[in-house]
Design a protein that fits this description.
With 325 residues, the chain is of the alpha/beta class. The protein has two domains: 137 residues, Response regulator (Rossmann fold); 148 residues, Rossmann fold (3-Layer(aba) Sandwich), CATH 3.40.50.2300. It is 45% helix and 20% strand. It has a seven-stranded mixed sheet, sandwiched between helices. The radius of gyration is 25 Å and the shape is elongated. It starts with a helix and ends with a strand.
C-alpha cells in the first residue's frame, strides 16, 4: 500500500516528467524569407503587399511562422552581389529575386538556397534555368515572357489613340529584351521607331529631348527594374514633352503615363508566394515548372489624355479594364 509521502513523491515526479516531455517538444519553425530587389523599398511596397497577401492565403503569416530579410539596392546594380551574399550568410530559407537584375546575383551567391524569380525575362536564354517545364537547380518562379508579345500590340494601341501616328520613340534599358517583337509590329503598322538606349538613370532626361528633336509622335518603353524605380519621372517627362506613352505595367499609368497594357505585376507577386509556400513545405524548386502571366490589364489615364488634347476612342474605352480619372 502506497503511503502519503510516497504518493506525493510519485505525483511530483510525474509532473517533472510531464514538463520535461513538454519542454522537449520542438517549437514551430520560423522561416526566413529573403527579398532581393534592385528598386527602393518604397517602389516595391505595393507589390510586396500582394506577395504578403498571397502567403497569408496559404497559411504563412509574418511574425507567426516567417520573417522577412529585405535587401534593397535603391537602383544601384553594383550593390546587388553584396546584398545577395548577405542573405546567403544569414542562411535564409528562400530568396525571392524580384527581377532579372537580382536573379543573376542571387544565383551566383548560392547553388543550394531556393530562389524564386518574379518578373523574370527569358530566364532560359539568360542561363538561369534549364527550361520552363523543369528548371532544375535551385531556381523557379514566374516570368513575364508572354508580356513581350504585348509590346507589339501596344504599338497598335498607340496608333488607335494618336491620329496619323508615324514615328514612335522607344526608350530601352540596355539589358532589356523585346526590340525584335517591337520592330516586327512597327513594320506591319508602317511606323518608324527611334530607339534610345538607357544605360543609367542619368540618361533618361536627355533621351526625351532627343526623341522630341526627332519629332516622335508617341513613346513606349522596354525596360526592367531601373525603369520601374523611375516610373514617375518617365511619366512626368512624357507629359512634359507631350508624348502619348504606353508601358506594359499598370503602375506606369497610375504614375501618369497615358496607357498601360500587359501583365499584372500584383498577380505575379501573389503567384510567387505560392512557389515560396511549396518550397517551405519541402518541394524542390528545380521540379516546379516556371509559369508565365495569365492576367493582363489595359489601363487608360483619362486625365493624361485630356492634358495631351487626345480623345479616347470609344472602342478603347470599352476594352479597358480600368480608366483612371
Amino acid at each position: 500500500m502506497m503511503d502519503r509521502r510516497t504518493f506525493i513523491g510519485a505525483f511530483a515526479g510525474g509532473l517533472v516528467g510531464t514538463r520535461t516531455v513538454a519542454d522537449a517538444q520542438p517549437a514551430a519553425k520560423i522561416y526566413t524569407i529573403g527579398l532581393l530587389a534592385l528598386p527602393s523599398a518604397e517602389a516595391v511596397a505595393p507589390l510586396l503587399g500582394a506577395f504578403i497577401d498571397g502567403l497569408r492565403d496559404l497559411g504563412y503569416v509574418e511574425g507567426r511562422n516567417f520573417v522577412f530579410e529585405f535587401r534593397y539596392a535603391d537602383g544601384r546594380l553594383e550593390r546587388l552581389p553584396d546584398l545577395a551574399a548577405e542573405l546567403v550568410r544569414m542562411r535564409v530559407d528562400v530568396i525571392v529575386a524580384s527581377s532579372n537584375a537580382s536573379i543573376g546575383p542571387a544565383k551566383h551567391a548560392t547553388a543550394t538556397i531556393p530562389i524564386v524569380m518574379v518578373t523574370a525575362v527569358d530566364p532560359v536564354g539568360a542561363g538561369h534555368i534549364a527550361n520552363l517545364a523543369r528548371p532544375g537547380g535551385n531556381i523557379t518562379g514566374v516570368t513575364v515572357d508572354a508580356g513581350r508579345e504585348m509590346l507589339g500590340k501596344n504599338l497598335g494601341l498607340l496608333a488607335e489613340m494618336v491620329p496619323k501616328l508615324s514615328r514612335v520613340g522607344v526608350l530601352r534599358q540596355l539589358d532589356a529584351s523585346g526590340l525584335p517583337e517591337l520592330a516586327a509590329a512597327a513594320r506591319k503598322l508602317n511606323l518608324a521607331l527611334d530607339v534610345v538606349d538607357i544605360r543609367s538613370p542619368d540618361d533618361i532626361a536627355g533621351a526625351f529631348v532627343a526623341l522630341a528633336d526627332k519629332r516622335a509622335g508617341a513613346i513606349t518603353f522596354i525596360g526592367g527594374a531601373m525603369f520601374y524605380q523611375r516610373r514617375q519621372q518617365l511619366a512626368d517627362l512624357a507629359l512634359k514633352h507631350r508624348f502619348p506613352g504606353i508601358h506594359l505595367l499598370k503602375d506606369y499609368a497610375e504614375a501618369g503615363l497615358l496607357m498601360a497594357n500587359g501583365p499584372s505585376l500584383h498577380d505575379l507577386f501573389r503567384r510567387a508566394a505560392g512557389y515560396v509556400a511549396k518550397i517551405l513545405r519541402g518541394a524542390k524548386p528545380g521540379d516546379l515548372p516556371v509559369e508565365q502571366p495569365v492576367k493582363f490589364e489595359l489601363v487608360i489615364n483619362r486625365k493624361t489624355a485630356k492634358a495631351l488634347g487626345l480623345t479616347i476612342p470609344q472602342a478603347l474605352l470599352l476594352r479597358a479594364d480600368e480608366v483612371i480619372e
